[in-house]
Structures are given as C-alpha cells and as structure tokens.
Amino acid sequence: MTAELRQVANGFAYKVKSFTSYDVNGYRFRTSSYEQSQPNRKTTSTGVFTAGQDRVEYYGRLEEIYELSFHGCRPLNPVIFKCHWFDPAVTRRTWASLGVVEIRQDSVLPGDDVYVVAQQATQVYYLPYACQDKENLNGWDIVHKVSPHGKLPLPNNEDYTFNPNTYDGEFFQEEGLEGRFEIDLTEAIGMEVDNEWVDAGNAGDEVLNEKDLQMLDRLQLGQDNVDNIPPSDSVEYFDMIDSDDETYDPANPDHEDYF
Question: Can you give the pTM of this predicted structure?
C-alpha cells in the first residue's frame, strides 16, 4: 500500500473548511444558499454535471463546498461538492437529434451518494420552458452546458453534420481546400486587366512646355508628387533646392545645374 493510499485510509479530520464559491476547471461555482442570498444577481452558477462510471449522466444543483484535510506524510486537501442530484431515470431527450436534454428539478436521485470531487464537475444551467401551461412542458427544464472561462469548445465531426443529398445542415473543412483555383472578375467589375494600357486614340495631348516637362521628370524620379511641386519660377520652388549646394546662385536661378 502506498503512503498516499494509507493516508486516505486513515480518514480525514472532522473539521473541514466550507466555501460559498470555488473556481475549478475554468468555472466559478457557487452554492445555492449563497445565490438565494443575492436577490439582485444577474447570473447563476449552481448547476453541476458529471458523467458516472456507469455511463449515466448526472445533473444536479450545488449545495455545499467542502475542503477535506487528510493528515499524513504530505498535504492532501481535496475539495468536494455536495449536490442535490436529479433522478436520471426521469431525464428525457425529446429532441435527441439536436442534443437537447431535459430534466425535472423536483426529482431526487435515490440513495445517499451526493458527493463528487470538484475536479469531476462541469458547469451547466437550467432554463425552463416559457409555455408552462402545456402539460408536456410544465416542470421540465432544458440543460445548457457552459464553456470554461477563456476557452472555446473545439469543433468535432459530430458538431457539423449535413445531408449529402440535399446539403441541409452545416459542414466545415478541417484541413482546408486541396489545390487552388482562380476567379476572373474582369467582366463582372468592368475594368481592364492591364492598368498600364492606354488607348492610342485617347492618349491625350503631347507635353511641350519646358516647366511641365521638368515637373514630370521630378515625378518620375520619385522626388515629389504633383500636389506639392510649386512652379519653377516661384519663390517656393527655390526654397526646395538643397541649401548645401555650393553651386546655387540666387542671381542666376536658371542655371542648368538646378534642373
């Protein structure tokens, strides 16, 4: 027998710690008594779900949270949940194809096995039907599973099903599409594929002005853009000339070195 098993066999202390809330498995659980003492609460965190070793799904409501203390060679302080478990014999799956589970909160699991280790608990919440006047809906609640905080449920093949004959339903591509394909939208959006192509019959007028040619040369060299190039005979144009240029002569602005 291992030391840990012997420690458990010796039993735990009669004095235990009690909590009104506990964080585990990415969930924050609260006891029913604590939530009932908060009349203005906006959320509920008392629903508990666990899968039994007998392959039966157990749904319940958290009543107490205890931390046990086993004295021995090493600290051993498991946290357990005391729950009101609903009778799984009256659980129904009216909409089995959609994965809907319905429980009755007025049912009770027979027996005294009401405890579960906190790490075995998954959080759920129960939503009653709005149409309580119908006999087949009165007293039944739908079970909704809660995703852990900071985590999203991973997709699986069972979550995405579709009919290959009618394509009804949903499907996903797990690894991405194989190969590649191209879509030609040239005619759809009415544009030329080659943006550099110019109709010879509509090429525009030939530029002959010397100042305009100088401006176009500067644009071609990437020195400026058409919005901020001042005329070559303006004061602003001379301000653009490099002040460190020793050949610059204000008295002779038309010198060929400046262009």
Answer: 0.56
